[in-house]
Write a structure and sequence with these properties.
The protein has six helices and two strands. It is mainly alpha-helical.
């Protein structure tokens, strides 16, 4: 077997196998996001924006248009177009910032959250039901954090 496909070193090969499994998970999630985009008439970038906005809300971060542009790796002009599409569809609302009343923060609308749960709810329930011991969750969490940091 070629070294670039399957390393001769067993530890390196085992680590690479985890990477390939993680890639498979990422691919399947990307396919689900694409199907959601198709069924809702959204652009793929719009779906990624909604996900990042929900992530911000869970983290207690005020998601400003500038913050969203950074998260998506897009220019402010391109991000503005995404925000306008999402606002027009009723998926995103502009609210006053909690820390600076002069600036706006973005929030996913309740109807968009409901729409997401209708589509992704069964998948999320299956993922939640995956049985792991608390100590295993800690290990998996550390690995996923390290992988996220390694990707950048």
């Amino acid at each position: 077997m070629r070294e670039g496909v399957m390393p001769a070193d067993p530890e390196r090969a085992a680590a690479l196998e985890l990477v390939h499994r993680l890639r498979e998970v990422a691919l399947r999630l990307e396919l689900a996001m694409g199907e959601f985009a198709r069924t809702t008439g959204l652009h793929g970038t719009d779906v990624r924006a909604l996900i990042r906005l929900l992530d911000a809300e869970r983290a207690g971060v005020d998601a400003t248009p500038g913050w969203l542009a950074g998260q998506l790796g897009m220019t402010s002009q391109a991000t503005t177009a995404v925000i306008h599409r999402l606002e027009a569809a009723g998926h995103v609302e502009r609210l006053r910032s909690r820390s600076d009343g002069r600036s706006a923060r973005l929030q996913v609308s309740d109807s968009a959250v409901d729409l997401g749960w209708q589509f992704f709810g069964p998948l999320l329930e299956r993922l939640i039901a995956v049985e792991l011991q608390p100590s295993e969750r800690v290990v998996v969490g550390k690995y996923l954090d390290a992988v996220t940091d390694a990707i950048g």
